[in-house]
Fold these 4 entries.
Entry 1:
Amino acid sequence: MSALLSVHGVDVRISGRKILDGVSFEIGPGELTGLIGSNGAGKTTLFRVVLGLQALSAGSVRIDGRPRSRRGAAVGYVPQKFLLDPDLPMRARDLVDLGLDGHRLGIAWPSRKRRARVEEMLDAVDALRFAEARVGSLSGGEQQRVLIAHALVGQPRLLLLDEPLANLDISRGEEVVSLLARIAREQSIAVLISAHEINPLLPVMDRVIYMADGRAASGRTDEVVRADVLSRLYGHHVDVLNVHGRVLVVAGAGSESDLAGHEAVLPGPGHEHGAALEVGLDGVLGAAGEQPPRPEGKAPR
Amino acid sequence: MSLDQSRAPAALIFASGFFGNEAVHVALGVGAAVAIVAGVVGVFTVIRGQSFAGEAFGDIGTAGGSGAFLLGIGPLLGFVIGNVIGAGAMELIGVQRPRGRDLATGIVLGAAIGLGALFLYLTVISQSTSGAAQTILFGSVFEISSSTVPLVILIGAACLAIVATIYRPLLLSSVSAEIAAARGVPVRAIGALYLLALALTVALAAITIGTILSTALLVGPAAAALRLTKSTPRAMLYAAGIGVAALWIGVVLAYDSDHWPPGGRLWPVSFFVVAIVFCAYVLSGLPVAIRERRERRAPAQEPARLGAEG
Ligand SMILES: Nc1ncnc2c1ncn2[C@@H]1O[C@H](COP(=O)(O)OP(=O)(O)O)[C@@H](O)[C@H]1O
Ligand SMILES: [Mg+2]
């Protein structure tokens, strides 16, 4: 099996509570995988497991066929809800440079090779324009890109991003997502992105891991975003409906209150709370331009 | 003191005997060494938001210094021993946990102040003057014995060596403890080593300007430097420069001050140092303020913006 990351039967208990429950999945190089789940589903905990920062109660995690190790740069990581201190005396360029060997002791001496590598990474994430700016003074989206470059410059095989879209507007989010998809393909690394909503990731995602209450369902998008699979995951009946080229995941009768707990999966305002988990399958069912016209009065968001 | 003002303009600034005075040499040398270490270590104190811990080491130093006086050992040794014990206690209570940090610092600080109060009281009654207490609290850089110099150099070098050794992982964990941990940095051990360097640096600052103001030398120049540059190594350089300048100017002015009112006695060096550091901090805001002013004026020349504003 050529899986880059394989997670097998992972249980995590924190003070007696089961936070992860039999999570298994595999992802391969060059693939972009979405880790979808609402608040508290266990996404961050799963990342910490992969990074070796969270002890397992059961199961195994292998990276490149070897047990996870805590050292080195094999895994790049961009944490959740992360904003840099505006007073940090560092240019965007310096933070990317620190990604090369920031875990090693001592001082790094500048060299032409380092500089070229940093330059290349800044270019890859389209951050050359603000490379000289104090990194904490950049906008959330710009910091995000610098942090991605920081994570990538050490040439990891696996890149984890915890809710990178949470503090970006929609168009910035689309940019970041397509950037990551390109990086995954070009550099042949595995990219795992967590998100509340599946919509922004659909156009680029190779595989999806759906999480709810510490359990996970994974596979190709069309294998997972199905009524039977998601019903089993949520523990009650849900329907997956195709409406005008978009897919809605709708709570079955009598289970509204359960789904209300997953409010974060709900799309923007104007939707009845707890009524539906909306899943736009634009990327799976055709490019955005090929979508059928929407009925009148329902302007696209 | 009478000055022959016609001889040299330098005589206006440097009172007679300044350059030939052994105590002045020690003060300038120790002051420079301490200010350089404080600049380098202080930049990380500010970046990591650990000024409170620095402040606590000042107060712990009061207990250590007065304890040392009662035992008849040198004040520097007292500061160092007190602060290292304090750092250990903070570490044990949990200074590395983000929320536990202020708590741990506060607990140790409280205990140290209590102990310091007792020791200072005992010092004063055993001596029946407040001289020793004055030296511990506000420093007296002219009274540093030249036998202390090797210890100052040793401790200063140790601090710089610690920072140089852990520079990259320390910087990374100051940016984000999470990212550092994910890269395999032993964040807690790195933090503990830095805390040790901080404790030693405050001990050094305390012998020059006293325990109460010791963090001013640590935090002030660094805070000013951070406003002047967006590069960490350069911030350290600037902070060291500001600190050395403040100490040297302070020494010069204090040496001059015996013919200032009330006359016949030297003003405390720490007063001048802190005043200069404060001025440096205020001045360091100027470049940013000027740039912002220019930027605010610049867009007004664009016709589109002009319309929107008018
Ligand atoms: N260190 C911890 N101690 C106790 N509970 C935790 C800890 N970390 C996470 N949890 C719990 O585990 C669940 C999953 O959390 P998390 O992985 O952060 O979810 P997500 O990232 O999907 O929002 C939550 O209910 C959270 O309260
Ligand atoms: Mg999370």
Entry 2:
Amino acid sequence: MSKHHVTTKINGDETEFLCETDETLLDVLRNQLGLTGTKEGCSTGDCGACSVTVDGRLVCSCLMLGVEANGKSIGTIEGMAKGEKLHPLQEKFLSHAALQCGICTPGFLVAAKALLDKNPDPSETEVRYWLAGNLCRCTGYDKIVRAVMDAAAEMRGA
Amino acid sequence: MQEKVKEPGSEFTHIGTRPVRPDGVDKVTGRARFGADLSLPGQITGKVLRSPHPHARIRSIDTSAAEKLAGVKAVVTAADFKDQPSEFVPAGEMMINYRDVVRNVMAREKVLFEGHPVAAVAATSASIAKQALKLIKVDYEVLPHVIDVREAMKPDAPLLHEDMITQGMTPAPTKPSNIAKRIEIGLGDIAAGFAAADIVIEREFDTKPVHQGYIEPHACSATVSEDGQAELWVSTQGHWIVRAHCARLLGWDVSKIRVTAAEIGGGFGGKTVVYLEPIALALAKKSGRPVKMVMTREEVLKASGPTSGAHVKVKMGAKKDGTLVAAEAQLLFQAGAFQGSPVQPAAMCAFAPYDIANVKLVGYDVVSNRPKVAAYRAPGGPIAEFAVESVVDELAAKVGLDPIALRLKNAAKQGTRAAYGPKFGPVGFVETLEAAEAHAHWRTPLGKNQGRGVAAGFWFNIGGETSVSLSLNEDGTLSLTAGTPDIGGLRASLCMMAGEELSVGLDKIRVQIGDTGQLGYNFLTGGSRATFSSGMATVEAAREVKREACKRAAKMWELPVEAVEYVDGKVRPAGPNAGKHEPMTLAQVAAIAGKTGGPIVGYSRINAHGAAPSFATHLCDVEVDPETGKATVIRYTALQDAGRAIHPSYVEGQYQGGVAQGIGWALNEEYIYGPDGRMQNAGFLDYRVPVASDLPMIDTVIVEVPNPSHPYGVRGVGETPICPPMAAVANAIANATGVRMTDLPMSPPKVLKALDDARAKGAAKM
Ligand code: FES
Ligand code: FES
């Protein structure tokens, strides 16, 4: 079976890779590109640990094929901090202790950023429904929701 | 929203504050390396062939075709693991038997549950490994199976282990059965107790098996050199335990295996045993290549260690004034394929919150064709406490006391003897009840279709073997190495305790979880022991550093060691010599370490005694939809005794996380089996854990009744919070609807049916 040559942009960098037809974007990110910040919790689109953005849209990378990344722009957790500067969401997750084990955290951060990019002033209910595709088994979501609301407020300059 | 009942004394600099955890940045940037994140040069992929049958005899296994497939580097079956004699060893709060562990890791004579491993391959790619699994021929003689605990106890039930004679019965039964063990604990005279009761309530409860549901599937990487030196990188709650089990199953020296605990993506008790690890080592040895293995979510649900489904009968008697005088329970617990359900800890917890003179608990540990259970957060406790706290709620209503008042009247306190033996030291149950009574939640009026429930929780907590080292670096900074994997803020707490002892800033201490080659033995992170035990060891190690620092300065100053003291992060001459020399900072002491005796290292190796129980009171409001039966939790407050909260945010996090899991157990989660004995909902779509939109904020109140056995008063806090929610939700539903639910999960169809039945009898409130 010959592999496909894919050209894409990941966190702003031109990236090329070869992948099998049936390889998911998640597999490519983790196994070929060494971007293991994106996690696999289920591979069936039910946990959100593998959340990435594709041309700005929030996507479960376990549900997308590597070949589909061709010509697209992918955003992963590794691209969230700018140099030494953490994104306000990352800062707020730390100060609110919005993570325990941390396996769900990259997915939540990517998903929350996608929310705030669209809606800078979400209500608690909007945050809860937007993040309903991301499972966290440790925190009960309380501190995650607070961190997202607080980051939104800070980013609005409120 | 979050509050503390008692502020810790002002003498603390770090304890009780909320610094950013030391491993935090790595976890918000994706840098942290979890179980599946390591890649080794030349690594190949391991996969497991699993039984499609819940119960079958293995007539033969033919791996020859798989071995011949190009790219396959190794195949293993049960023949690659040493058979083991029957011997029980502790695993968390539970016991395991090596004879069973070796069979659970790889089936020998029979497969006993769907998903039971029968063979494994390692190949150059995952797809070749999967192809190879298809080429393995297993000849099964399919046998009748049994899932439900009461079915499994019937005399004509299919037998999982043909030689299993129930332990704990006199006289011992002569015929084998699926009942592995009978246990009994008690106090006083149960018959006399009930004879003295004015009111007696007896109810039966059913709970379904549920899974810990950690988001990270089991994962490990193994490599074994030609001379037998093995390295294992694994997501686990206890890497010394992994080392012990692997050494035993493979027949290797313990010293040959070095295990590193990866960052762990949740465990809740489920990562206290071995599944993939010995297989990965065997494949690595056979293939000569590093082998990585990762479970799928389906494998996690079908073939790791969920907790028991159970049937519980509770009978309680009270005087007219609400004094509890007798309490009896029978607990029937599924163990899964091998014995070892958490029925013993369940019995220990059941009536522990109450001071009752006459108690009898009988438990049965029953095998059935499900995966062997592992610990799940307060193993057994939530099941027993669901039943007991439901009955307590009914009793309160019967005697006309509010549920907090009845509990206050009967609450266990210092000096109360628990049915499982000990007399409690200082405990904080009364304080949590009083805090609940004083909380605004308790007094807020309810709306239409809403109800409020109260439930108590208890977990005993454990200590155990622990080693910690603390090195004073040459520049006066410190390196702290602990051996209990950090699942939710442990490194932060240890750093804070070391900083407190030594009066140094937290940024001067780097804390890591050491591998099995770096420290003496450490028992696992479980039983809510990590902050307690590793904290105790950290404090001892820090005190050793202080003593050693004084000694070195004494040597420099040519003073007797008693004439030097450690104050505010510095050593200085004390008593009559005070002021004779300038105080030395830790950096200055470190600089003279070489000249005064060599490196300064505090090393503590202890068996941590004095773990103290943690009690909780939970308040829960639900709204029930009268049309659909759907119950939604709309407000929740968890009040719990932490002894002392080192880092309050992570204590609150434990309360909130336990509550969320408990609400899932109460309302949604269950293993659903078809008549073929196969799990029908082996994925997060159908095994539905609570998501953000299912839950409200979860308020917490940290009550602090210090544990006198810990230098900072710490009690374990992680497990208690999952004990009350099922009863809190059930009691709230009863309050809203007039209907008592006794069967988990309280899913909409079940609640609706119960409501309809009650409506037909005119007993429903809606
Ligand atoms: S791994 Fe993609 S949603 Fe779970
Ligand atoms: S912090 Fe562990 S799953 Fe979210």
Entry 3:
Amino acid sequence: MEENRIRENQMAEQIAGPDELYFNEEHGMLRQTVKDFVTKEINAHLDEWEAKGESPLHDLFKKMGDLGLLGIRYDEAYGGQGLDYWYELVFLEELAHIEGLGLPVAIAVQTHMATPAIAEFGSDYLKQTYLRPALAGDMVTSIAVTEPGAGSDVSALATTAKRDGDTYVINGSKTFITNGTQADFLTLLARTSEKPGYHSFSLFVVPTDLPGFEVSKKLDKLGMRSSDTAELFFDDLRIPVENLIGEEGEGFIYQMRQFQHERYSVLPSAYITTMDMINMTVDYLRQRIVFGKPLIKQQVLRHRLAEWLTEIECIKQFTYHIVRMKSAGLDATREITMGKLKAARLFQEIAQGCLQMYGGMGFMNETLISRYYRDSRVFSVGGGADEVMCEVIGKLEGF
Amino acid sequence: MDILVCMKQVPDTETKIVINPEGTGIVTDGIKYVMNPYDEFAVEEALKIKEKMGGTVTIVSMGPQRATEAIRTALAMGADKGVHLCDDAFEGADSYSTAKALAAAIKPLSYDIILGGKQAVDHDNAQVYAALAELLDISHVSIVTQLDVAEDGKSAVAQREVEGGAREVIEVSLPAFIACQKGLNEPRYASLPGIMKAKKKPIDVIDLAKSGLSADEVGEKGAKLKIRKFFLPPEREAGKILEGEPEELATQLVKLLREEAKAI
Ligand SMILES: Cc1cc2nc3c(=O)[nH]c(=O)nc-3n(C[C@H](O)[C@H](O)[C@H](O)COP(=O)(O)OP(=O)(O)OC[C@H]3O[C@@H](n4cnc5c(N)ncnc54)[C@H](O)[C@@H]3O)c2cc1C
Ligand SMILES: Cc1cc2nc3c(=O)[nH]c(=O)nc-3n(C[C@H](O)[C@H](O)[C@H](O)COP(=O)(O)OP(=O)(O)OC[C@H]3O[C@@H](n4cnc5c(N)ncnc54)[C@H](O)[C@@H]3O)c2cc1C
């Protein structure tokens, strides 16, 4: 008995908490750097940027690039850090403490949405010319897939890239493009053949300083207001053939792979941002006296909180499982799709549930929960709607 | 320039402090520790001096095992090496016995300037640097908000914060101890490449034997000060809202200020 207890105590001394099962001292230091950065360089200015409808991405990304934060998993040959998925997860987890989804998404566009395909399939030229400055924070990027006539059904897209000598000529439009008013280049999916099927599309790097490019509209959104979103227009825009990523006709396949990084990147918000919401709400419930006692004493509210905490723990562990799968080189498409679906649902449920617990104060813009509530809608549509996630899961199951 | 920085690891300033039932200290379970915020200014200033004049930055810290985390953070910011005074005998130190141990670790080192925070935010004593300077027989300048080291590295001009926002300008010959105040600089973040490099930088661990001191001179035994009890200030009561006509309110307020708050 005694011996057992001593042994347990020794174990407890070695491991200060469950997070140490996954993270080491270097992870801890990275966490501290990103945490301080988020507090001082982002959260401190967020009210202003939300009101303005955009954030100074060039300035912010440069600072992040200098700290080596934009290319954690990317090849050192192109200015990345060559580190593993756990370092990257620490980064994403700390970004989830940003008080609103605008910047976590804007940053993830740079790190997880517009650059993975260049790193994986792009030529050395593209990596030197575009990936390197993106990781250094010298260039801001966008991913340009969605069009007015093609969202959930990506294969319906109508923007064309026609080969003409040493160039491709791009015509068409894209919409809902995050970072679109500030981007220095786009990773753009366009049609390169009229044939039906998935091999008629190609992925390109499109610099935005070329003639024929136009930001036709800056869009006004319900939430994520610190992130700019644009409608873009291409009129005979010529790019060199070198700007084709990988092989012609393979763009759709590349983009489906790239989506996996995008969808994965939202998972930490479902267990970090939601915890921030719950923590602030619990603080409020403790001090808010209704019917003669603090609201936290209402069993119905405590139970609701307990259920959310349980679900949060599940999605967190699921995310760690996905990280292990990715680290082992397994295809995690099924799990990432499920994770994205669940994350989107849980985020919304908790944002709306916390808002409810704030009573009338929750409906006031001065209360931070109202921003989370407005922003919470995005995950169920952006990066693929919930129904599309269900379609993917159903297909993988062979239904 | 050989630059030393005295640095302490302290509970994160966001920590909710809980006193243990015996009143002998705080409950340390689950506390997150960070580099003392004022020491961050010292590390940053040291790195700036090094960038300008060349040399090395050595971090000197006394603390338990976990203090290596804070030393690593300073190394990740760009410092070159660490000296960690770590031994059970050093525990329970006051400002004096801390200075004693630090002095023992510093004496064998070569140094042109020593920087540190103006105080550690845990005990808030703000005395270590003065005692340490005395033991090393060098000058110290406290609460420094601007520092210019002369090109020959033999002297420095420091601005001190004094009452009412006024500044005092002091020229000091080096080596000296500079106790840093907020406003001196904007500490850099530890970059990710810096963090990965810090792993390989040396930390020299100095235990009691290596320090050359006896157990009576350091830690609780060597302390001049005995802490008898810790307690938290009483919880603030909810505010009172007075209602009525302005004249009545004024009378009520004066009455309360005099009789309850005893403020006038
Ligand atoms: C804030 C924001 C930022 C964005 N950023 C980018 C970006 O940077 N780059 C980019 O390319 N795109 C971006 N998007 C676009 C996003 O990817 C699309 O909005 C999304 O894929 C859905 O496409 P859609 O809007 O055309 O909706 P539609 O395809 O018109 O679908 C409308 C709704 O129909 C339902 N639905 C769709 N298909 C099915 C089905 N098979 N079965 C049942 N129901 C279905 C879903 O509920 C869906 O929400 C962004 C969107 C938002 C809101
Ligand atoms: C846009 C807007 C307009 C309004 N206009 C008016 C107006 O014109 N005139 C006016 O007088 N008032 C108005 N109100 C106030 C409104 O009636 C109150 O906000 C509402 O009654 C809730 O009270 P509260 O905000 O104090 O929430 P609280 O009483 O603090 O309750 C907070 C939350 O706690 C939970 N809760 C409360 N009691 C319990 C319980 N017993 N068990 C479990 N859970 C509980 C609920 O989720 C509730 O939302 C308005 C509110 C809004 C948002």
Entry 4:
Amino acid sequence: MSKIDSKIPAGDLETKWTKYKSSVPLVNPSNKRNLEIVVVGSGLAGSSAATSLAELGYKVKVFCFQDSPRRAHSIAAQGGINAAKNYQNDGDSVYRLFYDTIKGGDYRAREANVHRLAEVSSNIIDQAVASGVPFAREYGGLLSNRSFGGTQVQRTFYAAGQTGQQLLLGAYSGLQRQIGLGNVQMFARHEMLEVVNIDGKCRGIIARDLVSGKLERHFGHAVLLCTGGYGNVFYLSTNAMACNVTAAWKAHKKGAYFANPCYTQIHPTCIPVSGDHQSKLTLMSESLRNDGRIWVPKRKEDAEAIRNGKLNPNDLKEEDRDYYLERRYPAFGNLVPRDVASRAAKERCDAGFGVNKTGEAVYLDFAFNMKYKYGKQVATLKHITNPTEAQLTEFGHEVIKEKYGNLFDMYKQITGVNPYENPMMIYPAVHYTMGGLWVDYNLMTTVPGLYALGEANFSDHGANRLGASALMQGLADGYFVIPYTIGAYLANEISVKSISTDHEAFVEAEKNVQSTIEKLFAVKGTKPVDFFHKRLGKIIWDNCGMARNVEGLTKAISEIKALREEFWNDVRVTGEANDFNPELEKAGRVADFIELGELMCKDALERNESCGGHFREDHQTEEGEALRDDENFKNVSAWEFKEIGNWDLHQEELVYENIKIAQRSYK
Amino acid sequence: MVYYFKTYNHNQYKKLNIMSGNMNINLKVWRQKNGKSQGKLVDYKVENVSPDMSFLEMFDVLNDRLINEGKDEPIAFDHDCREGICGSCSMYINGRPHGPNQGVTTCQLHMRSFKDNDTIVVEPWRSAAFPVIKDLATNRSAFDRIIASGGFISINTGNAQDANNLPIAKDNADDSFAAAACIGCGACVAACKNSSAMLFVSAKVSQLALLPQGAPERATRVLNMVAQMDAEGFGSCTNTGACEAECPKQISLTNIARLNREYYKAQLFSNEG
Ligand SMILES: Cc1cc2nc3c(=O)[nH]c(=O)nc-3n(C[C@H](O)[C@H](O)[C@H](O)COP(=O)(O)OP(=O)(O)OC[C@H]3O[C@@H](n4cnc5c(N)ncnc54)[C@H](O)[C@@H]3O)c2cc1C
Ligand code: SF4
Ligand code: FES
């Protein structure tokens, strides 16, 4: 085990970033024009990075596998984005956002990175508004805020339930402007399949044109991976269908360490699984927990009657309901962080109180706030002193519709049940991955010249991410961090001429990609790619999901090894290589997911503690809360790839100088 | 209080009562090898369809079968988020973009909207500006080029003032948001007998025209975007309203009226200049 250098600048936490920013080497404008940067990914991280770098004068190429950069997975984010603006005058500050994020991450994130994130958060909102993002506003014309889990202030900015869409379209329009100006070259429907290293530095990528199937070589003085998270390793998740780990994984196999792969986020409020045909799960935004109260029946008989359709939940009396989050965590109530809320739902369902046919669902109920919070407010505004129950419902309905309309519609379309009249049924589902490529303070991986931004890196969320912080991080990385930190590397590259893609390293890398593709076709097995993906997902969900233990993880590792064998002996990939071929794309991605799955379980097994989303059953308090082991595990696990199924572990010790670490409590 | 944590009991893939259904669906699907070849409708029968399946999940089931049988290649179609927000999915179902239901995308359409033994014809978007790539997947990059021609506010990173220094009346902000909800799917073009892209373009023009930040470039934006739209080969708008009726995000025709006003105003000024 060796130590790795996070390159955190010395000095006070509050001034570190400002000082560093002003001392980082600069590249002069005429040199920038000769420096080429490859950006893989067009989500919030990729679009904002590419745009900002192009504005500075670098020559930028952007890649995404969707048919348009506007369709990157960031588009699906619903609830909001955090910023320490303190517009609500409720005591928010950079320090508080910093503190909430470190605590929310269960003391497993770097102080310096998180503080920088909190510092730039305000600028993100300014930038977004200036580029035309229509955030929700109050009647006075100023921006509106709401609360998210794990915080006691209102710092979340939003655009109905479509915040990710509006932010991405804002970043995308900036990107399109740079494309129109000729500063960015866009390669949509292209998938990066390999990084190219020359003399120890990353110098480009191999990409496949997904329409023609042709392999292409692209040089860059630096390469930025903004390729999102790997939640789809579970098969079922709230991620878009094509989200995958391939870009990060190829980089990992070429020398980039992979950090904390076992830190995955299971989101408490998703629409429960409805059947075997299920292809993905749908999130019901965390913002719903502002007004929705989570409960199950107090008595098992009632739960059973509900499951059998003999009892309507609306008829269950108030005193017969168990608002278990409000009961267990009076200080934060329904707004506890995600990992805590998810485990609590699992606990109640495991104990037999689940409310749908499968026994794996709890209620998210708006009736109370619809009537007595909003209904009353509107009635007062209308000067109605003694409103009837029906009036309260009617008035409240309108307010709820304005706040969450699109989410309620989505729920109805998917389940066929009207959530204005019945409580929603929800259950936890895989949502986000805190783990990712290890990066230093500059966002550079362990391969010089290769960077990772956004969900693809591991940097800011520790063992659990707070809601509305991923959009913030993606845009912080792209708009406000990388444009500065990349100078530290590129200032020394100005004399490097662009390297011909005939260089043997490019030829070699392309040959490897080609041979992997040929290998996939050559198997000519009997089972479709999805068959293997579903099986992998089940192994990981059962053993490396909401609760983990030694026995299960050990078993999972051997099962995954066996699955890998089986995949390479029995997968059937149809169609041709030189053609538009979604099955081939999937096959390559699933092959990488299988290798990653093994590392996730290995990481979960080595981390002999519980923290955030990583809950080890053998490490819990008497009250069923996660029990950390700060003595041995106050660190980042960074895995170095040796060969398939074999890794070396490196550790980065985490130092807390500004926050006193304590047991995380939301009671 | 006792807390329960059982191991291995949690199984996402448990057999469920509602696992598979009993609907039989007759599909006629457009198959086309690539942009150069001729396409045709091919018949498929899908059995045991559950009403809780989404339309695309039915295609997953069919594709799995096609792979298993090894005769036909699986059907290619664009999709990603499966939540109605990315704008990837784009099927022309029984003569209507995104199928029979109003205000939803193909991926949000569920089989409970159909009946046992229904025959469903599925084709790609049809427009010269959206050439077919394969089967049901088309090339919609013309939309990106229209945005690149002017669908933005020219502001570089780091130049913004404090967001609350610019109050915006809630009604304007709400209207702007309603226009900004466009997902760029192209159903409006597919619905229009002229293949006009006016609804799409007007949504972006409106979003930015309704905000003070968008004001400085109002005139050039609309002129450039309309010019690019014409150059891409989209047809002209004859106000049939088919686009609004089929738009999954219910983008309103009032945006087209606003675009026209913006356009005439801009032309007037540019002629004077
Ligand atoms: C349903 C849902 C709701 C969410 N809601 C919120 C929220 O309200 N607030 C919040 O803060 N966060 C939210 N999140 C999390 C947040 O959306 C993501 O973490 C974030 O958008 C990730 O952005 P990104 O730029 O890192 O990656 P992405 O947006 O995932 O973009 C990845 C990009 O990389 C490209 N790419 C990947 N691999 C390759 C390859 N091999 N070759 C070429 N291109 C490649 C893709 O084409 C894409 O352009 C939500 C997530 C989900 C799933
Ligand atoms: S206007 Fe409507 S139909 Fe047209 S692209 Fe936008 S969302 Fe799709
Ligand atoms: S797949 Fe994203 S809108 Fe249908």
